[in-house]
């Protein structure tokens, strides 16, 4: 066979997803890598054991299965190396622990995933790290918030639940002038629709629980670093003793094979639903960056190549004391949508968003924010279910 790597370098996204991360010739021609369960690894002699002069030394430091997934993620991210951790939250907290120390200061976007905020406000604070939250739309203006001891700037675009966009390139450029590490939670877009390292980010974070898995049954996170930050990230992960199981890694690698076609479907259906909701009188606003009406649309259009399957809308409500009642009526009337916290799977999900944790980005005043994960079901059926929810909310 001709050199597949050279061919894949110029191939389309779905072609690459079908082939990256594993060389069948390494495993007797089988197209999938073996699932290697490992803790103990044997050495041929004392000298090799003393110097660790072989590829695999202990289960926490990788197996052929976890390496196959890491190699696939590096191909997608353009990264120098990737670590695997047991959850999306761990994918955020491990690099924080790797690059922050007592006395340091971190800037965290105010539209951040709530468990990340909780980690910052509890464990980081206890470890002597101070944190300030900033407006996601601040762009290069973040320079005014950087202190002499600022060591890390964390970004997330679009923002969690309310989907604010960020000028990642501008923020990264300013942060680097001050010697800060830039991290980004890029779970919403995946590396198919946005490549953080190409926009100045040092550490790209993903909850692979979501679209790479695609089937609502695996918890896993990936953290990918550029060359300048890879060794420190890897060393921190080894020191913390954090790793992902080979079974879960295999399932994520398997999920990657269809992620492109699934994302295409999620994107198409979600935009259909978002545009439809935007036209309804009982909806105050639709929070989706791919809509021209959204404040961050131009940033999304400039930097991103697609949109995924999760967004929010504001349910129009006359009086604040009716916000919760209408939101609950909407959710309780749903049949197709499940009520669940995750997303990225094959099924549609809905929840009432809580925004009381925000410091800078306040909650919309027109009504409750309802987040929808649009799954792989038929759009007509999804619309029918949402209509039932809206009718129930209207009756309250």
TrEMBL record:
Coiled coil regions in record: none
Species whose genome carries this gene: Rhizobium giardinii
GO biological process, one term: transsulfuration
Protein origin, superkingdom: Bacteria
Matching Pfam families: Cys_Met_Meta_PP
Record-listed E.C. numbers: 4.4.1.8
GO molecular function per UniProt: cysteine-S-conjugate beta-lyase activity; pyridoxal phosphate binding
Protein name listed in UniProt: Cystathionine beta-lyase
Residues modified to N6-(pyridoxal phosphate)lysine: 210
Family: Belongs to the trans-sulfuration enzymes family.
Stored PANTHER family: CYSTATHIONINE BETA-LYASE-RELATED
Keywords: Lyase, Pyridoxal phosphate
Group of enzyme by EC: lyase
Gene3D superfamilies: Aspartate Aminotransferase, domain 1, Type I PLP-dependent aspartate aminotransferase-like (Major domain)
Keyword hit for Lyase: yes
Required cofactor(s): pyridoxal 5'-phosphate
Catalysis performed (reactions): L,L-cystathionine + H2O = L-homocysteine + pyruvate + NH4(+)
């Amino acid at each position: 066979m001709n050199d597949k790597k050279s061919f894949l370098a110029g191939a389309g996204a779905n072609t690459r997803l079908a082939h990256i991360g594993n060389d069948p010739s390494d495993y007797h021609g089988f197209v999938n890598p073996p699932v290697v369960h490992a803790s103990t690894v044997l050495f041929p002699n004392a000298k090799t054991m003393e110097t660790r002069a072989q590829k695999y030394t202990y289960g926490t430091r990788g197996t052929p299965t976890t390496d196959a997934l890491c190699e696939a993620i590096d191909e997608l991210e353009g990264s120098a190396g990737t670590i695997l951790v047991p959850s999306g939250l761990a994918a955020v907290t491990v690099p924080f622990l790797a690059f922050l120390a007592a006395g340091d200061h971190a800037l965290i976007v105010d539209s951040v995933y709530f468990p990340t905020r909780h980690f910052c406000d509890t464990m980081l604070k206890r470890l002597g790290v101070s944190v300030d939250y900033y407006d996601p739309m601040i762009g290069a203006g973040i320079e005014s918030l950087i202190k002499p001891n600022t060591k890390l700037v964390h970004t997330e675009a679009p923002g969690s639940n309310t989907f604010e966009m960020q000028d990642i390139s501008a923020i990264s450029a300013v942060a680097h002038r001050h010697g800060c590490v830039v991290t980004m939670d890029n779970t919403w877009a995946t590396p198919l629709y946005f490549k953080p390292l190409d926009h100045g980010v040092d550490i790209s974070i993903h909850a692979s629980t979501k679209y790479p898995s695609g089937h609502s049954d695996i918890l896993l996170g990936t953290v990918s670093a550029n060359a300048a930050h890879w060794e420190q990230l890897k060393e921190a992960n080894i020191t913390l003793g954090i790793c992902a199981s080979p079974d879960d890694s295999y399932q994520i690698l398997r999920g990657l094979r269809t992620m492109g076609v699934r994302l295409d479907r999620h994107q198409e259906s979600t935009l259909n639903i978002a545009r439809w909701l935007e036209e309804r009188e009982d909806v105050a606003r639709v929070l989706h960056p791919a809509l021209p009406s959204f404040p961050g649309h131009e940033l999304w259009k400039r930097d991103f190549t697609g949109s995924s399957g999760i967004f929010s809308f504001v349910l129009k409500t006359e009086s604040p004391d009716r916000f919760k009642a209408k939101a609950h009526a909407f959710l309780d009337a749903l049949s197709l949508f499940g009520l669940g916290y995750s997303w990225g799977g094959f099924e549609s999900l809905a929840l009432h968003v809580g925004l009381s944790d925000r410091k800078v980005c306040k909650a919309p005043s027109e009504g409750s924010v309802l987040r929808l994960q649009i799954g792989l079901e038929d759009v007509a059926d999804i619309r029918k279910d949402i209509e039932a929810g809206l009718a129930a909310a209207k009756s309250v």
